[in-house]
Design goal:
heterotrimer; A alpha/beta; B alpha+beta; C alpha/beta; A: alpha/beta; Rossmann fold; 3-stranded parallel sheet; two-stranded parallel sheet; 38% helix; B: alpha+beta; 3-stranded antiparallel sheet; 15 helices; 47% helix; NAD (chain B); NADH_Q_OxRdtase_suD (chain B)
């Protein structure tokens, strides 16, 4: 496992260069931040011209955009989705709520610190961040990928036990078998 | 015959927001449907009890993400009713501008959004760009694109900026000029007509049984059941507008009604700009001294307004202290989003489920709170 | 205002009303004994208040009581009626109103989840809806402290403190 960018092999460097040119983000509106994604995707801001676009399924996407607060129930689905994604995969935490809980700091149902449960490469602060901020975050992520410093997914593999322990503490059981109690 | 379980959402392009419907299908006919809400649950009702009356102004717009202004309005109306606060005349009219602009915004999003489930992506691209013109106006008035925190108890936060009337009129002119193109793109498009006409029919008995309000009730009953008419708030009794109704509620009629409501909202804003007092105070003083010590007299009130999806209301209980004792949120899409899905989706085709969610206006954050 | 007075007189003459309030000019609220509620709801439905707008609950912990609130709307006159009743907080039990208003099914489920009020006859109401794997008392009760629960379950971010008051630790 290579965590230091200096130890990258040539083919990895090449791969990172191309990965940083086209980002597919997963279509998962986890919170209110998703309301600024349609303007960013459609013709006014048009994020596709800088190489980012929406993707319907987790298995084909590179980036998981956690748009805003996560309730415990969503965190569970986010973890399922994150684990379905193929390596290399990146996470953007979007909005103040992913950083420290934001206005929901004392809520009984929302988590306060996203990088405790899944590794986050880029955070965007604000409530709500503007479409320009979304695109800016993507640009930052692209630069990080090209430089080889976006290594969240490697961290997740190496510290799997630590992440799983945190997930268990917040969620009790990560897998839910019977959602409707039938 | 075999039953297969499918998940519509939470990460599904045809889903509005973070909401899940589990479908048990046979072929492509839905046999059973189970809504799974709660993924946007933030415990707002509890948080509001813990904040001061003033602090809540920052919290409430976040309950309904697509149309935040209605939250501010019902909260302000409730507190004003309990506290006997007289709102200045100009503030009423400014509130109407904000509410109607927001209504146009969400209707544009829903109207163009039908392109999602029907596979016509020009619709969303156009409509969301047009909606951005309205967000620009909001930004100029309030300083924020999405969460405005502009309508406060006792009026509005500050007066309109100079020259904004001209800009609003320009935006309305531009929108109105484009509306005929939308008619061609969406309402006369054979793809959309084939998918929505005589599809997802909502009979009047069902609407009554579920407690569906708003467009769903108006298009099925043929009566103008609109709170702006039935129990007018702000100054809706002083402007002229029609409430579009129909006697047969299929997906197409509901879509058309949204389109007609956009036209009526434009008409209302035009009248407001003409009739509103040109100057005067916009915010009544609600308390003497610090806003942190502000108290609302004891009482219980249900304040309601007409949102784009129906009757939206807060049940506010005050015990005379600095914090609200309890605020309960009646989300407008509660009936169609939960019981409607469970009871009336079975029997429809799998690919029409998203059309129900779209045209009935199921808004996940206000169901979950 | 005529129809407003008419309905108040009508209800007063027919049922045992404990208290009447009129918060706004298009709204009236009645307090009843809990055993009268079903008859009143059925009666109000038959005379035009045919929409159950909302069903919610308020926790009056000092009185050791829950208050159930049924909000009914008459679209013809625009008058909203609040029908309210109090339940014992120790044993909150109420007969379901689903046979009168089928739309109440999920509201009852909601109230059960957040307050723990049991609705007899609505079996679905005992299932969880919004919360998943909940492991504490119903969260909307007044004696539930969300801050404490959040501190216990969800990790907080540590910040460097640039400035500290005199005598403060850290």
């Amino acid at each position: 496992m290579v965590l230091d960018e200096k130890d990258r092999k040539t083919w990895e460097e090449l791969g990172d260069f191309f990965r940083g040119k086209s980002m597919w983000m997963m279509h998962f509106c986890t919170g209110c931040g998703a309301i600024e994604l349609p303007p960013a995707m459609t013709s006014r801001f048009d994020m596709e011209r800088i190489g980012m676009g929406p993707m319907a399924t987790p298995r084909q996407s590179d980036v998981l955009l956690v748009t805003g607060y996560l309730s415990a129930k969503t965190l569970r689905r986010v973890i399922y989705s994150y684990e379905q994604m193929l390596n290399p995969k990146y996470v953007i935490g979007f909005g103040s709520c992913t950083l420290n809980g934001g206005v929901y700091y004392d809520s009984y149902s929302t988590i306060n610190k996203l990088d405790n449960y899944i590794p986050v490469d880029v955070f965007v602060a604000g409530c709500m961040p503007r479409p320009e901020a979304v695109m800016n975050a993507f640009k930052d992520l692209m630069d990080k990928i090209k430089a080889g410093t976006a290594n969240g997914w490697k961290k997740y593999q190496e510290n799997k036990e630590w992440y799983e322990e945190n997930q268990k503490l917040a969620l009790g059981e990560v897998d839910v078998k019977d959602e409707f109690h039938e | 015959m075999r039953e297969l379980k499918l998940f519509l959402g939470p990460n599904h392009p045809g889903m509005h927001g973070n909401f899940s419907v589990h479908l048990y299908v046979d072929g492509d006919i839905v046999k059973r449907a189970r809504p799974l809400p709660g993924m946007l649950h933030r415990g707002f009702e509890k948080l509001m009890e813990r904040r001061l009356w003033t602090n809540n102004i920052a919290l409430i717009p976040r309950i309904c993400v697509v149309e935040p202004d209605i939250n501010e309005m019902v909260y302000a109306m409730g507190a004003e009713a309990l506290g006997n606060i007289e709102v200045p005349e100009r503030a009423h009219w400014i509130r109407m501008i904000i509410l109607e602009l927001a209504r146009i915004g969400i209707h544009m999003m829903a109207f163009g959004g039908i392109g999602g489930p029907t596979g016509l992506y020009t619709g969303p691209n156009w409509a969301i760009t047009e909606r951005d013109l309205i967000l620009d106006i909001f930004e100029e008035i309030t300083g924020a694109r999405v969460y405005h925190m502009y309508i406060v108890v006792g009026g509005v936060r500050k007066d309109l900026p100079k020259g904004i009337e001209k800009k609003i009129e320009n935006v309305l002119d531009k929108l109105e000029g484009r509306l005929s193109e939308y008619e061609d793109l969406i309402l006369r498009n054979s793809t959309i007509i084939n998918r929505t006409k005589d599809n997802i029919v909502l009979p009047e008995e069902v609407a009554r049984e579920l407690g569906v309000t708003g467009i769903g009730l108006r298009t099925s009953s043929g009566k103008a059941y609109d709170i702006r008419k039935v129990d007018p708030y702000a100054r809706y009794d002083q402007v002229e507008f029609e409430v579009p109704v129909a006697n047969y509620s299929d997906a197409y009629t509901r879509l058309e009604t949204k389109y007609k409501e956009v036209k009526q909202s434009i008409r209302i804003i035009r009248q407001v700009l003409e009739k509103m007092p040109k100057d005067g105070p916009v915010r009544a003083k609600v308390s003497t001294g610090s806003a942190l010590k502000w108290r609302i007299p004891k009482g219980q009130v249900f304040s309601h307004i007409e949102s784009s999806r129906g009757e939206y209301g807060y049940y506010i209980v005050s015990d005379g202290s600095r914090q609200p004792y309890r605020i309960a949120v009646r989300g407008a899409s509660y009936p169609q989003g939960l019981l409607g899905i469970e009871k009336y989706l079975p029997g429809t085709r799998l690919d029409d489920v998203a059309i129900w969610l779209d045209t009935m206006g199921v808004c996940a954050p206000e169901i979950d709170r | 205002m005529n129809s407003m007075n008419k309905i108040i007189e009508d209800i007063k003459s027919k049922y045992n009303v404990l208290n009447i309030e009129q918060p706004t000019k298009q709204q009236v609220s009645f307090d009843f004994e809990s055993r009268d509620i079903h008859a009143i709801l059925a009666y109000l439905k038959s005379i035009g208040w045919n929409q159950l707008t909302f069903l919610t609950c308020v926790d009056f912990i000092d009185d050791k009581e829950f208050q159930l609130v049924f909000i009914l709307m008459n679209w013809e006159t625009g008058i909203t009626i609040q029908v309210r009743t109090r339940l014992d907080r120790e044993k909150p039990l109420f007969k379901t109103i689903v046979p009168i208003f089928p739309g109440a099914k999920f509201y009852e489920r909601d109230v059960h989840e957040f307050f723990g009020v049991e609705f007899e006859g609505n079996e679905d109401s005992k299932k969880g809806l919004f919360l998943e794997l909940w492991d504490d008392i119903p969260p909307m009760r007044k004696d539930f402290d969300p801050q404490k629960y959040s501190d216990k379950k969800y990790a907080k971010r540590d910040y460097n403190v640039d400035f500290k008051k005199e005598g403060e630790e850290r």
